[in-house]
């Protein structure tokens, strides 16, 4: 109906929208109570984890469960070096440590496909968790550490910056030839190899890139928890939640991943305050329900709806 | 003395290995045949252990008798879960790889649900009871009676299951499906019912192992995950879809675990992971895999 002769370019609307959101997000903490800022930080954390996870695992369909390892390494870097280094340096080092770890994991798991890759990454995170725990129990003889704390507003701006960088990275990779190659790997790795894409280098690099901001986010968030130990830092939930959030929102859309991370973090917040005793149980039920009823996520639901509407309208 | 210590380690390892083998065969059915990498496998072990504990402490029912009570209930539970959850996922997934991915997530959700129901009903305290705690002198090495009994039962259950697989029609169907689900279906195997039964049988084995574990160790609602991980490692060690391999993998893991435990008690879980990661890198098809 509104087929105007000169429609606005496709990218204008998201650009304006994201610009407004960035301005709002940068100004907002002045007017908000501390509690809201804390939960915004949680949302930012899960957005970083989810979008980062989806940069590699979304197109290639290699389901990684190593997020907890990358996030936890960042946390530990910040906990160990937090009192000797400035905040920004700790964040940068957290990202770097995570990047290097991911390079190593990527290099060693190159030949693994499908489920083997998933179990390998899961086993690796658990190995790191138990090794750090063993080290603390038997060598340093103190489990857990105190982290130099940083005020919420500073953490907020740091997390906001990391979120924006993550989104920018995800967007550019997705819309570049590398993103297309990653998608091709997900469809058929052999064929992609034969076309002339350097499959191994691309896989490792994308995997390592996806780990950078997880580590940076870990280093930032560690300052907010004041106390950390291996079970907190390398909690397997940090591996599973991003996958779930991405599926919930829609793995193949960045806005879907953001919505998924935001919605489930808010939901967790609400459940935790309203039903503290049944929180974990309810979360488990939601997890199963999402996987069962929303396999394509909310973004998929929207597409299904519009397809259905078209179908009805045509008839 | 050295000889006794060696015997001690080996027999202790075999006892542990027998248990692990039982757990691994259970997961072998769920993962090798039904393709569900069931992270919540350990929760069924926990359920079996707590059922035995409650029946023994509240009603004075002998732990070995409670095998007969809790086993079928957990079997039904497993069958039902596969029927409602995993079968649906299997149908709606576009490929087997996609199904494997979503099913590990769904089973992680199950882990949460079962673990928290147990926490709400039994509390988070460590529990235990004493049953047949007397000792047996065995060639100079001393063992608790309940451990030997658990080992004996692990062997009996294992043998019974082996004959079930090797000699019955249904066992044949399971072996066929483990090799190739589609072809098995073409040969007239009712695949959905079969996979549901496999999942239920896996849960049953877990519950039986849980019952035996509760005789020997202290139990908590949080005990499940390490057993799940041991089972996953044993299954991969033995070769995916190879039930005999799972059994062997469990035995090997128990032996290694016991040896490492003698060197340093805290290191056994780390040792399992190391074996596992190396194995996946060097020989992902497992020791008995093709």
What do these coordinates show?
The complex is a heterodimer of chains A (315) and B (290). Helix content of chain A is 78%, strand content 1%. Chain A has 315 residues and is mostly helical. Chain A has a single domain, classed as Orthogonal Bundle (ABC transporter involved in vitamin B12 uptake, BtuC). Chain A has a two-stranded antiparallel ribbon with strand order 1-2. In chain A, helix 3 packs antiparallel against helix 4. The longest helix of chain A is centred in the first third of the chain and has 27 residues, at 34-60. The two termini of chain A are 18 Å apart. The model of chain A has no long low-confidence stretch (mean pLDDT 85). Chain B is an all-alpha fold and 290 residues long. Chain B has one domain. Helices cover 78% and strands 3% of the residues of chain B. Chain B has eleven helices and two strands. Chain B has helices spanning 2-33, 41-59, 63-92, 96-122, 145-167, 169-179, 181-186, 191-216, 224-238, 243-263, 268-282; strands at residues 135-138, 141-144. Chain B has a two-stranded antiparallel ribbon with strand order 1-2. In chain B, strand 1 (135-138) and strand 2 (141-144) form a beta hairpin. The A-B interface holds A 61, 63, 108-109, 111-112, 114-116, 118-120, 123-124, 126-127, 130-131, 134, 137-138, 240, 243-244, 247, 277-278, 280-281, 283-288, 291-292, 295 and B 37, 85, 88-89, 92-93, 97-98, 100-102, 104-106, 108-113, 115-117, 119-120, 229, 232-233, 236, 264, 266-267, 269-270, 273-274, 276-277, 280-281, 284.
Major sheet of chain B: 2 strands, antiparallel
Structural class of chain B: mainly alpha
Shape of chain A: globular
- Termini separation of chain A (Å)? 18 Å
Distance between the termini of chain B: 42 Å
For the biggest β-sheet of chain A, the strand order reads: 1-2
Strand content of chain A: under 5%
Number of helical elements of chain B: 11
C-alpha-based Rg of chain B, rounded:
19 Å
> What's the helical proportion of residues of chain B?
over 70%
Average residue-wise pLDDT of chain B: 84
């Amino acid at each position: 109906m509104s087929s105007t002769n000169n429609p606005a370019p496709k990218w204008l609307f998201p650009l304006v929208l994201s610009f407004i959101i960035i301005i709002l997000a940068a100004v907002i903490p002045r007017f908000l109570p501390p509690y809201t800022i804390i939960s915004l930080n949680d949302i930012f954390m899960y957005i970083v984890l989810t979008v980062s996870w989806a940069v590699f695992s979304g197109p290639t369909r290699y389901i990684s469960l190593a997020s907890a390892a990358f996030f936890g390494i960042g946390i530990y870097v910040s906990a160990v070096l937090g009192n000797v280094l400035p905040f920004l340096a700790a964040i940068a080092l957290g990202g770097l440590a995570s990047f290097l770890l991911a390079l190593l994991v990527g290099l060693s798991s190159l030949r693994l496909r499908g489920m083997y890759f998933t179990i390998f990454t899961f086993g690796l995170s658990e190995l790191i968790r138990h090794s750090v725990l063993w080290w603390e129990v038997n060598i340093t003889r103190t489990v857990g550490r105190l982290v130099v704390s940083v005020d919420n507003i500073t953490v907020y701006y740091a997390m906001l910056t990391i979120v924006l960088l993550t989104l920018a990275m995800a967007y550019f990779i997705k819309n570049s030839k590398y993103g297309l190659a990653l998608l091709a790997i997900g469809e058929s790795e052999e064929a992609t190899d034969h076309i002339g894409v350097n499959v191994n280098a691309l896989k490792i690099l994308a995997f390592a890139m996806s780990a950078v901001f997880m580590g940076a986010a870990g280093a930032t968030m560690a300052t907010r928890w004041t106390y950390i130990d291996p079970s907190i830092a390398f909690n397997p939930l940090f591996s599973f939640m991003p996958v779930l959030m991405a599926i919930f929102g829609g793995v193949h859309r960045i806005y879907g991943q953001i919505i998924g991370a935001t919605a489930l973090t808010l939901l967790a917040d609400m459940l935790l305050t309203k039903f503290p005793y049944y929180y974990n149980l309810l979360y488990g039920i939601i997890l199963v329900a999402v996987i069962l009823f929303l396999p394509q996520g909310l973004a998929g639901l929207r597409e299904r709806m519009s397809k259905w509407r078209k179908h009805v309208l045509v008839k | 003395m050295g000889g006794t210590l060696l015997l001690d380690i080996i027999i202790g390892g075999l006892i542990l290995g027998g248990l692990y083998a039982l757990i691994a065969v259970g997961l072998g059915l769920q993962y090798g045949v039904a393709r569900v990498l069931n992270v919540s496998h350990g929760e069924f072990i926990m359920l079996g252990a707590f059922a035995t504990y409650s029946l023994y402490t509240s009603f004075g029912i002998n732990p070995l008798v409670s095998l007969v009570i809790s086993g079928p209930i957990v079997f039904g539970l497993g069958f039902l879960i596969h029927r409602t959850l995993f079968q649906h996922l299997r149908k709606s997934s576009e490929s087997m790889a996609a199904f494997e991915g979503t099913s590990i997530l769904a089973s992680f959700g199950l882990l949460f649900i079962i673990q928290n129901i147990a926490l709400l009903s039994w509390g988070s305290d460590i529990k235990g009871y004493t049953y047949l705690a007397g000792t047996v002198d065995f060639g100079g090495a001393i063992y608790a009676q309940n451990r030997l009994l658990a080992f004996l039962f692990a062997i009996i259950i294992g043998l019974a299951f082996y004959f079930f697989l090797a000699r019955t029609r249904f066992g044949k169907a399971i072996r066929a499906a483990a090799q190739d689900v589609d072809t098995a279906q073409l040969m007239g195997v009712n695949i959905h019912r079969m996979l549901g039964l496999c999942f239920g049988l896996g849960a049953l084995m877990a519950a039986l192992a849980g019952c035996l574990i509760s005789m020997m160790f202290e139990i908590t609602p949080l005990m499940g995950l390490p057993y799940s991980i041991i089972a996953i490692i044993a299954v991969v060690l033995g070769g995916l879809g190879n039930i005999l391999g799972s059994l062997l993998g469990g035995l090997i893991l128990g032996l290694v675990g016991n040896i490492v435990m003698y060197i340093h008690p805290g290191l056994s879980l780390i040792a399992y992971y190391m074996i596992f990661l190396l194995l996946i890198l060097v020989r992902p098809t497992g020791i008995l895999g093709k």
